[in-house]
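Design request, C-alpha cells follow.
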C-alpha cells in the first residue's frame, strides 16, 4: 500500500515538469517570433519567408553576387541596409561595413543597389540570404544561393587509340559550370604543352573548354593527356599511337627479316635441296660403265 502514494507523487512530478517545459517553450517562441522557426524548419525555409526568392547560381571557388534593390527609399528617412544568412541568423553586413569576421562578404553600393558579394564561395555558403531595409514599411529581399562544382571530361577516355600518321583531336568539355574558364592547361606525361612550339600541335580555347589537335600523330604523341581548366576538376585520357604495318620485302631493299613465314620456309627448302644435291654423288660415279 505504501508504494501507491509514491507512484502517484512521481506521476505528478512528471506532469508538472512537462507542463512547465511547454509553457517555457511557448514564452520563448513569442519572445523571438522569427527565431522560433528552428534550423530544421529553416532548411525548408519557404514557410517562414514572405515574398519572392531570387535564385543565384555560383561556381565553387568563384565570386557570387547577391542583388538587393531599394524600391521606395522614403523621403527624409535614413535607411539602414543589412544582410544576414537566414539559416543561423548571422549578421553579415551593416550599411557598407562588413560585420562578419569572414571578410569574404563585401557590400557594393551604387544608387539604390546594395549588392552582397561573396568571394571564393564554397558549398557551405549555400542557403537563403536576406537583405533588410529599415524603411516604413520594412523591405525584405530574399536570395537563395546555390553552389555548383564543375568538372571536365574528355570524350573517348580512359583509352583512345589512333593510327600513326592520322590526326588526333582531344576536346576538354566542362560540365556543371556556371562560367567559362579563364584558361585550360594541357599536359602530356606531366609536361605542359600549351606553349610548346611543337610542329603540328595546336591548342584552342573554347567557351566551354578547350581543343587539342595534332595533324599527323607520331609514336612520341602517345601517353597520358590531362586537361586542367581554371575553374573545374581536371580530366585524363591515355592516347595509344598504333604504328603502321611493315612494308613488303621488295620495298625494304630485300631485308630477309621482313619476309613472311611461307617465303622463308620455301627459301630454306631450296637451299637444303641444293646442299644435299651437291653432296650426293652422281649415278655415273656409283656405276661406272
Amino acid at each position: 500500500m505504501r508504494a501507491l502514494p509514491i507512484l502517484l507523487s512521481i506521476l505528478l512530478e512528471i506532469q508538472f515538469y512537462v507542463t512547465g517545459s511547454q509553457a517555457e517553450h511557448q514564452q520563448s517562441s513569442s519572445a523571438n517570433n522569427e527565431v522560433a522557426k528552428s534550423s530544421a524548419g529553416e532548411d525548408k525555409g519557404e514557410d517562414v519567408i514572405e515574398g519572392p526568392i531570387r535564385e543565384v547560381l555560383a561556381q565553387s571557388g568563384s565570386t557570387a553576387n547577391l542583388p538587393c534593390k531599394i524600391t521606395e527609399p522614403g523621403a527624409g528617412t535614413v535607411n539602414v541596409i543589412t544582410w544576414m544568412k537566414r539559416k543561423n541568423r548571422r549578421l553579415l553586413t551593416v550599411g557598407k561595413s562588413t560585420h562578419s569576421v569572414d571578410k569574404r562578404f563585401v557590400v557594393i553600393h551604387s544608387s539604390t543597389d546594395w549588392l552582397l558579394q561573396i568571394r571564393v564561395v564554397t558549398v557551405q555558403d549555400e542557403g537563403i540570404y536576406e537583405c533588410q531595409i529599415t524603411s516604413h514599411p520594412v523591405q525584405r529581399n530574399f536570395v537563395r544561393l546555390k553552389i555548383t562544382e564543375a568538372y571536365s571530361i574528355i570524350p573517348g577516355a580512359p583509352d583512345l587509340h589512333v593510327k600513326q600518321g592520322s590526326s588526333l583531336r582531344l576536346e576538354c568539355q566542362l560540365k556543371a559550370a556556371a562560367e567559362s574558364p579563364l584558361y585550360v592547361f594541357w599536359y602530356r606525361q606531366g609536361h605542359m604543352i600549351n606553349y610548346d612550339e611543337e610542329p603540328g600541335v595546336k591548342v584552342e580555347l573554347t567557351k566551354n573548354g578547350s581543343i587539342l589537335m595534332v595533324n599527323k600523330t607520331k609514336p612520341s604523341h602517345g601517353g597520358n593527356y590531362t586537361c586542367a581548366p581554371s575553374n573545374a576538376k581536371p580530366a585524363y585520357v591515355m592516347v595509344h599511337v598504333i604504328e603502321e604495318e611493315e612494308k613488303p620485302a621488295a620495298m625494304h631493299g630485300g631485308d630477309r627479316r621482313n619476309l613472311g613465314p611461307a617465303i622463308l620456309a620455301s627459301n630454306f627448302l631450296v637451299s637444303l635441296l641444293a646442299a644435299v644435291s651437291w653432296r650426293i654423288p652422281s649415278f655415273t660415279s656409283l656405276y661406272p660403265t
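Comment from the thread starter after seeing the answer: thanks! Confidence is low (pLDDT under 50) at residues 4-13, 15-47, 246-259, 283-287.
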